[in-house]
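Minutes, project check-in
Item: structure for the 382-residue chain
Input as provided by the requester:
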Amino acid sequence: MRTLSILGSTGSIGTQTLEVAASCGHRVAALTAHHNIDLLEQQVRTFHPILAAAADPTAAAALASRLADTDVQVLGGEEGVLAAARLPQADTAVTALVGIAGLAPTLAAIDTGKRIALANKETLVCAGPLVMALAKEKGAEIVPVDSEHSAIFQSLQGSHGRELKRILLTASGGPFFGWSREELAAVTPAKALKHPNWSMGAKVTIDSATLMNKGLELLEAMSLFSVPPEKIQILVHRESILHSAVEYCDNSVIAQLGAPDMRLPIQYALSWPDRTPGPADPLDLMTAGKLTFFSPDLETFPCLALAIRAAKEGGTAPAILNGANEVAVARFLNEEIGFLDIPRVVEAALDRVPRAEQLTLEAIYAADRAARAAAEGAAARS
């Protein structure tokens, strides 16, 4: 049983974490959201945390008024989210924020030595070496929540790093697997948001459709498991049953299988190294059908190729990739650019923004700002 600070409790991962907490008996000490105070208020009244925070100061003021009849402390702005991340009463921070906005709160939680149930992949995409070094220094456990990285983490249990030959990172292929570029040119946000297997937030769902999500996960896996990109093979696995695998030096392959239910990796991140009963759906192999595997199409879905490029270039290239992608996805969701414009915008930023070789927080945030400016300019020209 753990005591949780859930950063981003109103999103897809946050709400499912609360389901797991209710089922498994974990205590909730802090909840945060950006501006969805209707749902945040419901969560506070159900789980009775010590602290609630809204990153939007106006929303925080409204939440404080609504919760005036409770003894819950309500804070606002970035400082409120950081306070939730550092809350002494919580031994675990679930980082379910989206984008580079999750970096500072994750670092704050690591600084206090908490377990990090990491669902914010951009933290490691942009600042992986810094994050992992700080976690080692502070004795903070980082346990991945992404289904693929959880599968790799589980498949590595009981092994030594030197035994690892390569990681087999699976991708669903998104809703447009097998489509041509001509077909993709007509894709709308409504079509792209219909994922065949998973229920996720809007940004992650679009990233899955472009295959950028798999590129970001490749970068995340490099830091989590201390491997170069050459030791990670990406496989399109349409059924989303085998969540990822590792191949060892003796050529044996260990994989983790399960129903496409995010509550399972969330629960494991909280209970590890133990396993407990929980709310996740069971897997019935008799009805699962065939399991198929394909190579990703890097020409039709160039976002993945751009992520591999950033992984090989290193330095702040991944931060540039991430910042530009966040802008491009937001523009697409607002119907300001087309689906095929997303990789064009990202590539323009990668080509134009100088990368720093030495990774510091200042360099990462500077690269992010420059990438966003370059992406906005490229989007305006699309």
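Outcome recorded: The first strand starts at residue 3 and ends at 7.
No further action items on this chain.
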